[in-house]
Design a protein that fits this description.
Number of domains: 3
CATH architecture of the largest domain: 2-Layer Sandwich
CATH class of the largest domain: Alpha Beta
Largest sheet: 5 strands, antiparallel
CATH superfamily of the largest domain: ATP-grasp fold, B domain
CATH topology of the largest domain: D-amino Acid Aminotransferase, Chain A, domain 1
Strand content: 25-35%
Distance between the termini: 15 Å
Order of helices and strands: EHEEEEEHEHHEHEEHEEEEHEEHH
Strand order of the largest sheet: 14-13-12-15-16
Shape: globular
Radius of gyration: 20 Å
Length: about 290
Amino acid sequence: MLALIVVGRGPDWNDLALARACRQLFGSSRLVRAQDLSAYVGPDGIKLWHGPGELMVPEACFIRSLGHGTHEQLVARKAVLRAAEELGSLLINPIQALERARDKFSALLALRRAGFMVPRTYLTELSPVAYRLSSSMGKFVFKPITGSLGFGSMLFEDRDLAFNILRMLETHGYPLYLQEFLGEGGRELRIFMLAGEVVASAEKISPPGSWKKNVAQGARMIRAEVPAELEEMCKKAVQELGLLYAGLDVIEVDGQFIALEVNAAPNWKGLQECTGLDIGYLLASKVLEQLRS
């Protein structure tokens, strides 16, 4: 059996850990860049290539990243992966679910439907509108609408400073996604969900002098338990989004759980270090179990 691990520019620690687990469980695994995959469809069927070589149909295809590219390039990469799905590959996570979770605003809508409270969040392409709407918030954060790992996120207290930066972002074609900053209000949890169950959870601790709580930005994690009420809400959220596995970021403020965002291809190095769980192995095992059933 073959498992593909699809990455963007190159594999990171999490991708390599997953590849090792898949090699152990499936017998064969291959790390591939999304842009290096090609497909064919015609009267004689569907075929796949990795680079110049024809690719046997993988039983499982873990989509960790589609990489950077133009809209057309990303559409093409998703189309190639849909060809693999037509041939019988199990896509983890499914393309449609990835698209919904990748878009932070659509993911918030789904989280709200699942019963979560969500922060006040505005989405516009007009900097004057963003300036006016931000007056309802004290501190607020600009986030790239499809960003990850905290890269490009900016915290603002001064609306006029924010306006100058948002106006520049508008000229470069960036949507303006502004979210109320709740980071000082309570503890923030990362919850790793797999097949509708909580596999691991931890409190995120920002590094000294920083507001960001991303491990990629120097934050650390401390093992934490998830209350039963929150676990049920997380189950509903991943079901609503159609995700086999996901990382949910939830902040607890005055006893209420507020969902910040969901990641459909989460990293787990920090969680693994603080829990001792081999999360890549657990993920690969669950997918193999589903294939065999």
